[in-house]
Amino acid sequence: MNDLNKCYKTINSSPPTVGFGAFFVMSTGRLLPSLTRKLLVHFLVLINLFQSPEVDCLESTPTIENEIEGMDEWIYLSVPTATAGSNVSKKCLQHTEKYLKALESRLPWAVQMYESSGRLFEDLIHIEGSDSVHHEPGLFDECLFVQSDGVPFQGQYCTVFFDLKPVKEEETNVNHIENISNTSTDEQLNDGVKPVENNYNYQKPSVGFCLPSTCSAGDLRSAVAQHVGYRTIKETNFSIVTVANENYCYTQKKIDTSRTTFDNVTIAVLFAFSLLGITVATATVHDIWKGKNVTKSFAIQLLYCFSAKRNCATLFSAEESKESLSCVHGIRVLSICWIVLIHVGGAFTVLRLIYNRQMVIEKTVKFENQFVANGFFAVDTFFLMSGLLVAFKKLRQLDQNNGIFNLKRFYSHRYIRLTPVYAVLMAFVATLHPYVGTGPDWNLVVQKSQTLRKTWWINLMYINNYVNPVKNWWTNPEMPIGENWYLACDMQMFWLSPLFIYPIWRWRRTGVIWTVCCLLVALGISAIVLFVHDLPATICWLRPSDMAKINVYADKHYAETCARIPPYLIGIILGWILYKTKDKPIYIHKCLVAAGWMMATLFGLIVTYGMFPYLDEATVPVINPWIRVSYGVLHHSAWAIAVGWMIFACTHGYGGLLHQFLSWKLFVPLGRLSYSVYLIHLNYTFAYVSHLRKPYYFTEMSAAVNYFGILVISFLLAFVVSVTVEMPFINLDQLLFENKFKALQKGKKKT
User: Are residue 505 and residue 442 in the same domain, yes or no?
Assistant: First the structure.
């Protein structure tokens, strides 16, 4: 082979016509019969001898004939198991040989199998000085469809990833190179430590191979490791580690088996969903048929709680109660659209299948895109509105009930309001989600499903951010439902809300002072945590030093109830202010109104763009700790104050056109869907990304199409879930508990 390389080097140094001819043979040789390839090579060598007589290549001619016996060295780029030697199982080698013979004979199934495989270009795995990641994905579906009656195997699509492992100087001698290159990070390494699961593990360069189904992931790993090995980049020694896992190997038989095999839990969930669907269908048909003439017995009322006809009428109704805050509907809808935008943008840039990640990062750090890249505080809007609405409604109920605070009803109503949709989503993700699709990265969906089966009860108790939390949950692919941290924090804040609402109603000024003191204590605790753990100011920065702490930030601050409760407490105070002033005319001087809007705008801009000057770590290598901690602690509250002023001003007639827009009647039904959209959209996004057959190339146009597509589909799915799950259980809550509570209250008043 060395002689062959010598001849090719000689040819390549020859006149352009000869060099191009050699390149043509190397590039198109697979389309030519072996005899034709031999004659072409001999012809090129003879021409080279006449044009470059000083280079003797005739001695190598016999070796060329032997090595070009099929001129198939290039085929190993797509079929690495063909040269694996003893490191590959005997059956894999035998079936690979059959595949290559069929390919040489141009059998259709073998050609399809070869065309479905990516190419292993070693020099593109890691390029010195480049941040780009090379992917050769092959053709997923075409590989799975490979089948022939003449061979005992079918097509198998496997993805191989490549990582870098530092090599000590004493290990760089030739005797150690082979052992180094065969290391796999998916199994226990030489030191016996299994790597931590991380989404970034699978953002490495990758190749998708189509191989016989009898070859295991270990066979493929060993074969590919022989083609790559010890390298030196920037005077630093390292080996290229080949990563392969059975979870990233797929055959049509494996997929069909997984889709037709249901365990008892999955069967139980299917039965429950079917029963729910039958109930909804029965109630809807009966309501359409005899709804106007039927006697309203308790059984019929119970059945009609599930009527899609009545639930759709309620959902699409634009009527509001007199106690509602009309501008809240628009804020709720716009906030959920913003959160979906942030999550979709993150999913398409964080997960591995993207060609131009570096270009996306460069666009992300631009000033005009900070509302997406640095927009995770949008969830604070919901914390604010949650505290506001709880306090506003409960303070009025306390007036009506003469200060009676029924904690049992207070908590049960909230649990029934939120949990049915959440439980249905978890049941789906834990059992049926892996069945709805396939793809090279579908293992991400399977991982989340398997994890949720173990932790579902913790989520239903809303304690998942403290009891058995998923470690490094921000980048851990086993994090089952990305939104569950918010649900846990919100419910825990709701549990604590009577400690603030009742004192405010009972003692007014003392209750407000108590709430403000608790707000300051929470801010102080957050400051201590950020300072002690040296956490970044926010989670979505692109500074390398801060990104390395992203999991610590998520675990210690982002999902901590104490760190997120300030906007909720601000919402409670705002709810008390609106409770005292909503039905009263309030005159505010125009200068104060202008100052309020300027303050809210300034707070919003500072929160969104205030840390932009610090994004470039080369320009600002170290951020002043006081700036970092101040922003990290206060930006949640500053955003809540800005949105809170907007609600207050719009409620009292100082919102102008903005109030008219936020009070648009269309926002009322869309706002009722926001909770279901929040629960659904991220799981749908992960499923969509995991099913991608080819790497995604980011452009503004493609990003807009993906965002609006996912947003619309999320609202459509939310409509189905709301009509069949959310609203029926709200109706049941009102029928079974609300009427009973009102009857008890009337009885107490009579006595």
Answer: yes
Task: Find where tokens 């959160």 sit.
Answer: 339
Q: Is residue 290 part of a domain?
A: no
**pLDDT of amino acid 192:** 35
| Buried-state track 512-540, b at ≥16 Cβ within 10 A, e below 16 | beebeebbeebbeebbebbeeeebbbbbb
Q: Which residues of the chain have pLDDT under 50?
A: 1-71, 169-195, 751
Residue 728, judged by CB atoms within 10 A of its CB (0-12, 13-18, 19+), counts as: buried
Do the Cβ atoms of 122 and 227 come closer than 8 Å? yes
634/612 Cα distance (integer angstroms) = 16
CB 249 within 8 A of CB 156: yes
Q: Which two tokens stand for residue 656?
A: 């102008």
pTM of the model: 0.84
Domain around 10: 2-71
Structure tokens at 343: 């999550």
Q: Which of 210, 232, 251 is the last residue of a domain?
A: 251
SS3 240: strand
Residue 214 CA to residue 142 CA, distance in Å, equals: 18
In DSSP notation, 698-714 reads: --HHHHHHHHHHHHHHH
Number of domains in the chain: 3
Spatial distance between the Cα atoms of 60 and 274, rounded to a whole number of angstroms: 73
Assess whether 528 and 616 both reside in one domain.
Answer: yes
Helix ranges, 401-483 (H):
407-427, 443-460
Pair 62, 83 in one domain: no
Domain termination site, one of 251, 275, 298: 251
- By C-alpha distance, which of 134, 155, 146 is closest to 209? 155
Q: Verify that 92 and 168 share a domain, yes or no.
A: yes
- DSSP 8-class letter at 294: S
Residues 351 and 332 in one domain: yes
pLDDT of 229 reads 65
Q: Are 618 and 543 in contact (CB under 8 A)?
A: no
Residue 209's SS3 state is strand
Q: Token pair of 693, please?
A: 């057959």
Q: Where are the alpha helices (DSSP H) in 117-246?
A: 140-144, 174-181, 217-227
Burial letters for 309-338: b for 16+ Cβ neighbours within 10 Å, e otherwise? bbbbebbeeeeeeeeebbbbbbbbbbbbbb
pLDDT at 165: 75
Q: Is 339 helix (H, G, I), strand (E, B) or coil?
A: helix
Instruction: Assess whether 220 and 322 both reside in one domain.
Output: no
Residue type, 563: A
Asked if 140 and 20 sit in the same domain, the reply is: no
Return all residues near 500 (Cβ < 8 A) that are at least 6 apart: 391, 511, 514, 515, 518, 569, 572
CB 599 within 8 A of CB 605: no
| Upper half-sphere CA count for residue 437 (Cβ side, 13 Å) | 21
At 112, list the tokens: 């399809």
Q: Provide CB contacts within 8 A for 694, sequence distance 6+.
A: 137, 353
Residue 530 lies in a domain: yes
Q: Residue 56 has what pLDDT?
A: 44
270 assigned to some structural domain: no
CB-based contact 566:519 (threshold 8 Å): yes
Tell me how crowded residue 166 is: count the other CB atoms within 10 A of its CB: 9
Give domain status of residue 354, yes or no: yes
Would you state the pLDDT for residue 167?
Answer: 65
Is 494 in the same domain as 460? yes
